[in-house]
Each structure stands twice: as C-alpha cells, then as structure tokens.
Amino acid sequence: MPSDAAEMPFAEFSLEVTEDHLRRFYASAVANSDEWKLALDRFRQKIRLNTWAVVIFIVAFFTVLVLVVMGVVAERFAPLLLLGAIVSAGTSALHGQQLRTQFKAVQSGDLWLKQSVESGAVGPWKIDFSDSGVRSRMRNTDATYGWEHFSAAELVPSHVAVLASQGVSMYIPIELFTSDEAARGFVRRVQSILESHACTAAHRIVAYLRDQSTPCPKCRYDLKGVQHATCPECGLALSFENVPGARGVVMPPRN
Predict the structure, then answer these.
(1) What angle do CA 84, 86, 89 make, to 5 degrees?
(2) Which long-range contacts (CB under 8 A, 24 or more apart) does 135-138 make?
(3) Which structural domain range is residue 165 located in?
(4) pLDDT at 8 over 60
(5) End of a domain among 76, 108, 140?
C-alpha cells in the first residue's frame, strides 16, 4: 500500500464478529483504556467505603452494648439500638458482597461481554471509512459518524483503534489488514484526516481551554487561552487524562 498518508485509500471492512473477537478486543483495548481503569477504581472505592460502613456499624453495636452495661444507656433503649446496628451492618455486608460480585464480573470482562452480546455486537459487521466519515452497520444498528466525532487513531496489539472523544469508537481486528504496514498506513491516513478536520484531541483541548480557566495539573499555571496542547509554563503535554473536560467538546463538522 502507498506509504504517503494523504494517498492511503479507505475501504469497507467486513467481519463476522464472534465472542472470541470480543474477548480479545477486551483484553487488548478495553481493559487497558483509561476510562475502564477509572471505572474499576470507582468500584474499588465503593467497596472500601462499604467495608468501612460495616466496621462502623459493628463498632456501634459493641459501643451500645458497653454503654448499656455501664448504665449510660437505658436498658429499654438497648434492644432498638442494638437491632439497628445489627440490621445496618448486615445490610451493608450484603451490599458489599453484591459489589464484589459485580466488580469481579466487570474486571474479568464477563459483564462487558454480556452487554456487548445483548446489544447485537455478535454477528456480521461492516464498517466503511471514507473522507467524509465512518459508517458502521451491525445486526441492530446502522450509523454514520462524521470525522468530528473522532479524535485519534492508534495501533494496539490486536486492533486498529479509531477513538471517539465521546461515544462510539471503532476497533478493527488487525487480521483484516493485508500487513502490519497496511495497518500503520491506515492509522496515518486517519490521523491525517483528523488533522485536516481540526478535531484531534489537541484541537479539542485548545478549544476547551479557549474560555475555560483550568490550572495545569503539574505547575498550577492557568491554561486559559493556550494556543497549543502543552502548558506554556512547565511544558506538560495536555491530554484527555489531565484535561478530562475536553472530552465533551463538540467540534463543528467540516465539509
């Protein structure tokens, strides 16, 4: 294939998506994404908070018990207070068990796989890239996205990823390309299109910071009005990870 990104042709990719494809995609792309790691961290935080709640209710139970023995709390109130502590601790413990079960399903990819299968991801899939955008046709969906919907393209171990700042990203199994060079050429072509449409992550970050007062995560310099996706004070490269608000920037379509 041509090495010049500007001349790299687009084509329609066809694939019969199986659960094996989805599992490999989860292992190579989803599980390593910052969004997924953040979701898992939130789950872990919920589990930690739940554990502390159980401990607090158990401590409350024994505290009430000690206070009753010492005569600080009237015996007629003791059964109600003790019962409340026991019920609260038991309810929290049950909720914690449910959270751990959900966390294991999320971490292993089983929940993601189940949701993907239910949404119609398994079956025939055609994805058509052109200079005007991307059309994706699956069992239950037929959607077209302009390039302003996307912000980056990259080559991951088993897929070519065309990433959206929000919403639907596209992942093409590497085996659909004739060679690794063909896959790299396709990525360069997409990156060239994104640059021409001014909708890369860097463009979105600059657009977001045009009127948004935001401190640099490293040096706290006010990034409002910066012209490039780097901090002019300390040189930190700005990304969706350290300027998350830029993900929601809607870029105008370009003809």
Answers:
(1) 105
(2) 136/168, 136/170, 138/17
(3) 5-31+117-196
(4) no
(5) 108
**DSSP label at residue 131:** T
Is there a single domain that holds both residue 121 and residue 190?
Answer: yes
Residue-wise pLDDT tens digits, 154-169: 888 778 888 887 667 7
List beta partners, residue 150: 164
Q: What is the pTM of this model?
A: 0.60
Query: pLDDT value at position 230?
Result: 94
State the burial class of residue 178 (Cβ atoms within 10 Å of its Cβ: 0-12, 13-18, 19+): exposed
Does the pLDDT at position 34 exceed 70? Answer: no
Give the CATH number for residue 12. 2.30.29.30
Residues 6+ apart with CB under 8 A from 96: 47, 50, 51, 54
CA 6 to chain centre: 30
**Confidence check: pLDDT of 5 > 50:** no
